[in-house]
């Protein structure tokens, strides 16, 4: 999740952490002195359209990066879910590895591993594009427009590259968030790895830094602790499921390319830390980073330990596909549609939505979970209007939200 600009939801109705690096550029988040001891004492340059090898500081091409990944078995690529440039980096990396002769497997965050059969049907050509989106339950599992990921899925099918679902069923995420790890039922615990990595002060420091940067997220300490447990569980299960898919389906020299939110990748403290002791091969990470933040400040350089490779991107654009800019309570409480966050300068803020409002309907569709809202928004484009019915102070109201892109952030 981009804590400042995007709607919540790795899984429908659940917040997740996938730092917006454009929002973070110039911030402490990119320069925390944590992670790999060999690199955390220095910085590495971020240069537009160049790949930086943070081990040496060299600027290289995508093809050279593919060569340097020759001995790597798992590559984590972080993303901002609603930035097309991030997904272009993912596609170009997959293509470079494939053209270098590697067997490429792709692990994806947007589906729980229980949906693997549907992904197999897609690669096997048994679904049309629209059939896949509907029958695989894209908007049930994921909160972001299919078109952000379309080119990656089409390329994988055209080249016969297998895609693996690596996320956890939503019900397990809810259980971990609400009850912790020690009070799970046997059925719930069966979806987790055999063991999680010990708690990490550095990981918690990184996590807290993400949310301290967001003054629009209204959650108490207990709720934030629950969200941190969910984050740790996502790190562990996605890493573990990607590793199992590599072991079971990859041949000698195969590489598993894992496409997940950048918050699971940064500083090697997320999924990489969770599987490091289970895997004897080499693990690497790639982080696309905009060269300028939203206030127009140049990124320049970031902490070298943030990732193995950096890819310099243009300043982040507004999301191509509409979003209201709200986060819902989801599984946290008895009112899943209660708004817990309204992003500054968003369509929701401009329409007068407030924290505490309860979202009841969108364009006449009952909002029982975030996935319904995602489906409604998928049919809209910027410039449209979505009609909401909300409950505020015990009274129902109708709110017309004009879907307009946020303008430039205002400096203090």
**What is the CATH class name of the largest domain?**
Alpha Beta
Q: How many distinct domains?
A: 2
What is the averaged pLDDT score? Answer: 88
Q: N-to-C SSE series? A: HEEEHEHEHHHHEHHHHEHEEEEEHEEHEE
Query: Could you say which structural class the secondary elements and strand pairing correspond to?
Result: alpha/beta
Query: Which runs of at least 5 residues are low in confidence (pLDDT < 50)?
Result: 1-19
In whole angstroms, the N-to-C terminal distance is 24 Å
The biggest sheet amounts to: 8 strands, mixed
Strand order of the largest sheet: 3-2-10-8-4-7-5-6
* Beta-strand content bin: 15-25%
The CATH architecture of the largest domain is: 3-Layer(aba) Sandwich
Output the radius of gyration: 20 Å
Would you give the CATH topology of the largest domain?
Answer: Rossmann fold
* Assembly status: single chain
Query: Could you estimate the helical fraction of the residues in percent?
Result: 25-40%
Shape: globular
Beta strand count: 16
Number of helical regions: 14
Q: What order do the helices and strands come in, and which of them pair?
A:
Elements: H1 21-24, E1 43-45, E2 51-53, E3 58-60, H2 62-68, E4 72-79, H3 84-99, E5 104-112, H4 116-123, H5 129-135, H6 138-141, H7 150-159, E6 163-167, H8 170-179, H9 186-189, H10 201-212, H11 221-249, E7 255-261, H12 271-275, E8 282-290, E9 301-303, E10 309-313, E11 326-328, E12 339-342, H13 347-350, E13 358-362, E14 365-366, H14 370-378, E15 385-392, E16 395-402
Parallel strand pairs: 4-7, 4-8, 5-6, 5-7, 8-10
Antiparallel strand pairs: 1-9, 2-3, 2-10, 11-12, 13-14, 13-15, 15-16
Helix pairs in contact: 2-3, 8-11
């Amino acid at each position: 999740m981009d804590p400042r600009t995007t709607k919540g939801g790795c899984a429908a109705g659940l917040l997740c952490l996938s730092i917006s690096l454009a929002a973070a550029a110039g911030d402490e988040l990119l320069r925390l002195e944590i992670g790999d001891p060999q690199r955390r004492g220095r910085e590495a340059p971020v240069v537009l359209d160049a790949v930086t090898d943070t081990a040496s500081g060299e600027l290289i091409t995508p093809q050279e990066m593919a060569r340097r990944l020759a001995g790597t078995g798992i590559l984590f690529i972080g993303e901002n879910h609603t930035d097309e440039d991030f997904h272009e980096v993912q596609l170009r990396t997959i293509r470079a590895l494939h053209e270098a002769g590697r067997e490429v497997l792709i692990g994806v965050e947007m589906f729980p591993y229980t949906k693997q059969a549907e992904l197999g049907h897609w690669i096997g050509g048994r679904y049309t594009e629209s059939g896949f989106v509907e029958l695989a339950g894209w908007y049930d599992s994921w909160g972001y427009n299919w078109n952000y990921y379309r080119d990656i899925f089409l390329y994988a099918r055209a080249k016969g590259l297998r895609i693996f679902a690596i996320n956890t069923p939503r019900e397990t995420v809810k259980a971990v968030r609400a009850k912790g790890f020690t009070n799970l039922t046997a059925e719930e615990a069966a979806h987790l790895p055999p063991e999680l990595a010990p708690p990490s002060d550095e990981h918690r420091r990184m996590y807290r830094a993400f949310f301290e940067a967001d003054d629009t997220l209204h959650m108490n300490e207990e709720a934030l602790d629950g969200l941190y447990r969910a984050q740790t569980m996502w790190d562990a299960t996605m890493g573990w499921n990607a590793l199992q898919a590599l072991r079971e389906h990859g041949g000698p020299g195969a590489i598993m390319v894992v496409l997940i939110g950048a918050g699971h990748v940064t500083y090697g403290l997320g999924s990489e830390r969770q599987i490091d002791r289970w895997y004897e091969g080499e693990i690497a990470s790639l982080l696309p980073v905009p060269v300028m933040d939203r206030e127009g400040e140049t990124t320049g350089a970031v902490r070298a330990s943030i990732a193995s490779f950096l890819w310099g991107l243009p300043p982040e654009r507004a999301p191509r596909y509409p979003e209201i800019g709200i986060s819902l309570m989801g599984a946290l409480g008895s009112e899943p549609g209660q708004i817990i966050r309204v992003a500054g300068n968003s369509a929701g803020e401009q329409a007068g939505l407030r924290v505490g409002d309860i979202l009841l309907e969108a364009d006449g569709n009952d909002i029982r979970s975030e996935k319904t809202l995602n489906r409604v928004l998928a049919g809209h484009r910027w410039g449209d209007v979505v009609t909401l019915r909300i409950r505020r102070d015990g009274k129902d109201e109708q709110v017309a939200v004009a879907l307009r892109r946020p303008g430039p952030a205002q400096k203090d």
